[in-house]
Write a structure and sequence with these properties.
It is a single chain. The protein is an alpha+beta fold and 425 residues long. It has helices at residues 2-20, 117-213, 223-228, 230-233, 242-245, 262-300; strands at 37-39, 46-48, 75-78, 86-89, 317-321, 324-329, 333-338, 343-352, 362-366, 378-385, 390-398, 401-408. Helix content is 40%, strand content 17%. Alpha-D-mannopyranose (MAN) is lined by residues 336, 344, 371-372, 396, 399-400. The site of alpha-D-mannopyranose has 7 residues, from loops. Pfam families: PRKCSH-like, PRKCSH_1.
């Protein structure tokens, strides 16, 4: 008899427990404190307490049946001790499928659910611990990169100042070379004019000798004519032989002597040299100005609140995905190179495009190469926290629109919180 009484008490307490406690979270427990009556949580109805979890739906909000499938909109709380608690629709209670890892949803079914919460929790805790270690290490590296960024920023500023100085010096040099070139041109001009005068004088002399020799005025000088007038030009000791008297080019005056004028040659050489020197200085000045403008553009980019992203500038990262090699050069461009070697632009640096809370979580690269019968190629780069800076994945979810997962310590945020795995209850 005593044994029967004990068994009845145990059975009763299990029944009461299953009716009252099952499917309720700790925070809701206060609504189910055993009293004579139960007030539906939405306050719409008062029912006798025995009707809680009696497998009949009394409350419109389903709150009287948290542990059974009786109410259509009801929800069942899996406490999942050792893992993450969660709600399931109460229609899944005792439906023969294990939904809660603690098997609490199948307390009265043929399904033999095992409690797997402990294993799941262990696995998740290991994952979370791994993530926390990554985060710690990432934050440590980020700090280093911020410090390096400060130096790098100073270095870039100094580089800009140096380049500006070089440009100023080159400008002075340029003016000097322009002046020298102008002077060399002027001298050349002057020498040429002087040479021309000399040449004309020489021509006149040659013409008069020609006229003296050309006694029959036929415009030609013969050997006889030369020998006849030899007294004018002969060596006083002897008369001119026939060979000596042969005058080549009997038609007109000898060719211009200007080409052989050493003054003109020197002036021309000087002018050419000055022109070459000026061109060299002009080229150097242009190059340095391009470098200045390039550097100025780089320095106007937003590199994050602590300039933590500065180090990414002038770096490139690659990843091969199937037949394509993708290259991300942060703050510059994204490209795609196919196995056959053609390189396509997937977008040029556009802007930060993260969330309002963290605008530095995404980068947009826009206006890449137009897609055949499609849009212009664009790429969205998502920055995720990691201990290394590397491309993790590239996908093309829609034609010519690419998404890139880019890991780097500078994307690590100290506020990152993991969803807790509870071990209470
Ligand atoms: C190339 C690549 C692809 C893209 C097609 C569109 O093959 O750039 O990523 O989808 O062109 O024609």
């Amino acid at each position: 008899m005593r044994r029967h009484i004990i068994m009845a008490v145990v059975f009763w307490s299990v029944c009461v427990d299953s009716r009252k406690i099952r499917g309720i979270s700790l925070s809701y427990k206060r609504f189910y404190r055993e009293r004579k009556s139960f007030l539906c949580i939405d306050g719409s109805k008062m029912i006798p307490f025995e009707q809680v979890n009696d497998d009949y739906c009394d409350c419109e909000d389903g709150s009287d049946e948290p542990g059974t499938a009786a109410c259509p909109g009801g929800r069942f709380y899996c406490s999942n001790l050792g893992f993450r608690p969660h709600y399931i629709p109460s229609s899944r209670v005792n439906d023969g499928i294990c939904d809660c890892c603690d098997a609490s949803d199948e307390y009265n079914s043929h399904a033999h659910c095992q409690n797997s919460c402990r294993n799941l929790g262990q696995r998740e805790r290991a994952d979370v611990e791994g993530q926390m270690r990554t985060l710690d290490e990432g934050l440590r590296l980020k700090q280093q990169l911020i410090e390096e960024g400060v130096l790098l920023w100073r270095e870039k500023q100094a580089q800009l100042r140096d380049l500006q100085q070089v440009a100023e010096d080159l400008q002075i040099k340029l003016e000097e070379h322009r002046r020298r070139k102008h002077e060399a041109d002027r001298l050349k001009e002057q020498t040429l004019k002087a040479g021309d005068r000399g040449h004309r004088h020489q021509n006149r002399t040659v013409t008069s000798i020609f006229q003296i020799l050309d006694s029959n005025k036929d415009g030609r000088i013969t050997v006889n004519e030369v020998q006849a007038k030899v007294a004018f030009i002969q060596d006083e000791e002897r008369s001119l032989s026939e060979d000596e008297a042969v005058i080549k080019g009997t038609y007109g005056v000898p060719a211009s002597l200007a080409d052989e004028d050493p003054n003109i040659e020197a002036a021309e050489r000087d002018a050419v040299r000055e022109d070459t020197d000026l061109k060299k200085v002009e080229e150097a000045y242009e190059t340095v100005n391009m470098e200045i403008s390039d550097l100025r553009n780089k320095l106007t980019i937003d590199y994050g609140t602590d300039r933590e992203f500065l180090f990414l500038n002038s770096q490139c990262y690659q990843l091969k995905v199937y037949e394509y090699t993708y290259t991300l050069c942060p703050f510059n461009q994204v490209t795609q190179k196919s196995a056959v070697g053609t390189e396509v632009s997937l977008g040029k640096w556009g802007t930060w495009a993260g969330t309002p809370e963290n605008q530095y979580s995404r980068m947009r690269y826009e206006s890449g190469e137009p897609c055949w019968q499609g849009p212009t190629r664009n790429t969205m780069v998502t920055l995720t926290c990691g201990t290394e800076t590397a491309l993790r994945s590239v996908k093309e979810p829609s034609k010519c629109q690419y998404i890139v997962d880019f890991q780097t310590p500078v994307a690590c945020q100290p506020v990152l919180k993991q969803q807790g795995i509870h071990s209470e209850l």
